[in-house]
Amino acid sequence: MLDLSGPLGNGLHARYEELIQQAAYLVSYLVKEECKVELFINRLDADNKVDHLRMSDGRKQLRLALVRLAWIHESNRFVASKRFGRIIERQKHPHAELIRIDASFLKQMSVG
User: Fold this and answer.
1) Could you tell me the pTM of the whole model?
2) I need a surface site. Which of 41, 48, 49, 92 has the fewest CB within 10 A?
3) Inter-residue contact 81 to 9 (CB < 8 Å)
């Protein structure tokens, strides 16, 4: 789950590029470890739905995820954190382990 909202849960985080880099690294690592990956981004797509890459594995999944991450732009429309969390709980694969990359993730990186 990639939540690009600012620390208060809305707007775009000032360090959103770092969040995207961390998501790209994590997806790459998980695919190389032969894990299946499902990706949610709190960006709205052309159909006004949360950007969602369905669960899959392999090099094709890695390529699709990296392309989606590369297409993120500050002019996109984003969903607030609370709403995004509720959407994910309803839509994520039932066996998926949720990994959050968000503003709190950056705080953990700077402390650790």
Assistant:
1) 0.90
2) 48
3) yes
